[in-house]
């Protein structure tokens, strides 16, 4: 379970940044080119800081807005100096965190394994992340020799706590930013990101043997991997707790990763995940990430901050869409600029190289090379989240405000929005197979990016088609076509595993099933049941408006059952996957064992007998709707007839 929520006594962050001097960066991107100054003060007492807590972002309706705009008042005036005393309990928590820090070689192995499998949406370039890790051992290595002494870990804990209260730096270049996060400037929120990487590197999944766990140093090798992951997760939560008195935008990065790790371990449909998401949004708005008050010029730090802001907005929509509940942060209150489509190496290089790449972007900010950078993916998911936010308004808002012309406008805008990146939204099974068989070694993420992007693009159209069918009474043909492709692509990585397509726990296959596969399966199952009923009705005048390819559908549904049952018990959404598999099995049973044909003259005599569930489903599933062609309920509503709490669906 997650640790205590982060409660803010008052929004705490820095004031709006003033324009800073232009910073010139070196064009080199090798690790050695980023120099991190690490002063080695060994003083154990508190070093007074000139910084004081500020109330954070205050908008135009805040209590101080009128005074502040007149220059009569600054919000920082009401805040006292920081309490510059060490809290013994905080020091103890820090010691517990440091006890779980692997040795240097294992830490480097874990970070590289995480880098090789993740999408890159970490909010910090890999070259800087590697340098941060190296600086920990170069700065504190002499205090972490095995066996580690309690007194040495206490000294490290004090130094990190002290660094957390420092004024920090507004440096936008790679060298200055890396230095502000590393060595003696290391803070708990930065260290927590490394623990997240270690946890993801250790997460087990069905295709990995236990020998992979030998990466862990001898102090932890005897532990079960899942136990070690939970210990690392506890360390992440402790890092968040120790950062509570010095809220900065970078803390949002750790809160975001902690929430995602929580969904991986406990599932998306859990109170713990929802609470962590709202904590994240609360801190993000308290730091002003939703409206970005940072450096106006393009630099590595400012661009990474925009990416972080975008990811917070995107994952809020992801959880809202999954549960069908209103999001915590709507697009009307989100004004942060979309990050530019620039390679991380270019951002780190800066200078003329950066300016040349900026000039080479198209008018919307996309690169013209057809390349897929982490920034490309971030731009894509943020723009998709904007569209999903509008779509959710149509689903969850007042019916009196619904208009079909808005659905049609969203459909057109979706196509126009992603027209500049056809390489990212047009993946097919054939193109993915060709990429997987390329003799050039590819990171697994390079295959997953186009697959997940295509499914996200399809999901937007899928939801719009659901609105068109349910409220606009349009044909289901397009809806079924999209549903079939979504099921096909959801199954693809599982069916292709071991044939060039690598499956990793990083991508949470259980979440992929729930987010993309199951909604499409719901449409297909409903239509298949209706088609089965029509094939066994005595009335020859009733014919299906759309004929599904039964053999293909049954095969894919069978594969879907196998895929759902293949999900390991340690997956966060394991139970939900098992329940959905049972539902699909019931559907196939009805397809191959349809109900007894009842003639019209006996229909009235059988009405009372049909009050019980037929084959595990409500009778309305077999009741014709308008003109005998409906199911008596909306296509997505059939899932609501399933009792998820008691047998036979809850084991």
Automatic annotation (TrEMBL):
Keyword annotations: Nucleus
This protein's record includes keyword Nucleus: yes
InterPro entries to which the protein is assigned, alphabetical: Sec_Metabolite_Reg
GO CC terms in record: nucleus
Keyword Nucleus among UniProt keywords: yes
Subcellular location: Nucleus
Domain of life: Eukaryota
PANTHER family per record: UNCHARACTERIZED TRANSCRIPTIONAL REGULATORY PROTEIN, ZN(II)2CYS6 TRANSCRIPTION FACTOR (EUROFUNG)
UniProt protein name: Transcription factor domain-containing protein
Species the sequence originates in: Rhynchosporium graminicola
